[in-house]
Amino acid sequence: MADLIIPKDYDPKLSIRDTEAAIRFIRENFQDEFGQELHLQRMSAPMFVEKSTGLNDNLNGVEKPVSFDMKDMPGDTIEVVHSLAKWKRLALKKYGFGMHEGLYTNMNAIRKDEDLDNFHSIYVDQWDWEKIIAKEERTEETLKSTVRQIFKVIKRIEKELWYLYPDAVYQLPDEIHFVTTQELEDRWPDLTPMEREDKIAKEMGAVFVMKIGDKLKRSGKPHDGRAPDYDDWSLNGDIIFWYEPLQKKLEISSMGIRVSPESMKYQLEQAGATDREKLPFHKMLLNGELPYTIGGGIGQSRLCMLLLGKAHVGEVQASIWPEDMLKKCEAAHIQIL
């Protein structure tokens, strides 16, 4: 278990029932407005996939998915998804989506190896989304423009929520800024990557940290881990807010322009994962059979936590927590569901 932050004199402001009503408002309205803003259609998505397809998200490469077998498919290993990063791109082709059309879905996952703290749970709920773009649109400007669209929707929901719960809404900055991981390393070479993110988030309020996954020049290490077979490491990033109640940065979204055949081949080599080239999804991508896309995930509970000024993600989602964490939260008036 990672360090638990207990804010001084914490006041949850809303009762549990009012919190639940606010959660419903945020989730229902955000997904509708987000879908309209980015021209995305809601689609159904799997909670588990066959291991042999290579569709599951490998995250940082060390987390083990929850897996099981089933009676009618003996010999096949079924994995609970970590995310739908690769499934979405395949779905856009399978379901006949056209240029600048896309999908979003409610993604529920189990990440059993997660380090639990105020922000992290073994239960992950997010809006996974993916949109087709042209090859020539695989640019930094396309990425930044999409980030600004997402930020605009978050700000719109904040305003709508304020009319309902003016005393409970956490005020967000009016603008999002952009910075690369190399710029962060150049500026604070002696800090860890996560300490750099805290620094830049506190300074700017809201920031999109770009280019995550490849090695940095000074340290020779990646800023953070990224699977080599969905985001293009030169065209991706995280949306991060400075979160005053906990004096920490709060990541809301990981997203990016997806790999081309060329960039995936390079990244698989860098990650020592060229064996994946034999998997069905990877074969299709390398053969140019999948559309060029941009996509990502937006944390549902994270967004609720941010907008409502909550001290713990367990206040906005039902999960499982260690007994000592529950006791500490109860003593601090943190209402774990």
Mean pLDDT: 91
What CATH architecture do you see? 2-Layer Sandwich
Classify the beta-strand content into a percent band.
15-25%
Please give the order of strands in the largest beta sheet: 1-5-6-11-10-9-8-7
CATH class term: Alpha Beta
Catalytic activity: L-aspartate + NH4(+) + ATP = L-asparagine + AMP + diphosphate + H(+)
GO cellular component, one term: cytosol
Main location: cytoplasm
Organism: Limosilactobacillus frumenti DSM 13145
List the helices and strands and how they pair.
Layout: H1 16-38, E1 40-42, E2 48-50, E3 67-68, E4 78-80, H2 85-94, E5 102-110, E6 123-132, H3 140-164, E7 177-180, H4 181-187, H5 193-204, E8 206-210, E9 231-243, E10 248-258, H6 261-270, H7 280-286, E11 293-299, H8 300-308, H9 323-331
Parallel strand pairs: 1-5, 7-8
Antiparallel strand pairs: 2-4, 3-4, 5-6, 6-11, 8-9, 9-10, 10-11
Helix pairs in contact: 1-3, 1-8
Descriptive overview:
Keywords: Amino-acid biosynthesis, Asparagine biosynthesis, ATP-binding, Cytoplasm, Ligase, Nucleotide-binding. InterPro entries: aa-tRNA-synth_II, aa-tRNA-synth_II/BPL/LPL, AsnA. Residues 24-322 form the Aminoacyl-transfer RNA synthetases class-II family profile domain. This is Aspartate--ammonia ligase. It catalyses: L-aspartate + NH4(+) + ATP = L-asparagine + AMP + diphosphate + H(+). This protein has one domain (16-331): BirA Bifunctional Protein, domain 2, CATH 3.30.930. By secondary structure, the protein is of the alpha+beta class. The protein has an eight-stranded mixed β-sheet, sandwiched between helices. Strands 2-4-3 form a three-stranded antiparallel β-sheet, with no helix packed on it. A hairpin with a 4-residue loop joins β9 (231-243) and β10 (248-258). The two termini are 19 Å apart. The protein has helices at 16-38, 85-94, 140-164, 181-187, 193-204, 261-270, 280-286, 300-308, 323-331; strands at 40-42, 48-50, 67-68, 78-80, 102-110, 123-132, 177-180, 206-210, 231-243, 248-258, 293-299. α1 runs antiparallel to α3 (140-164) and α1 crosses α8. 41% of the residues are buried.
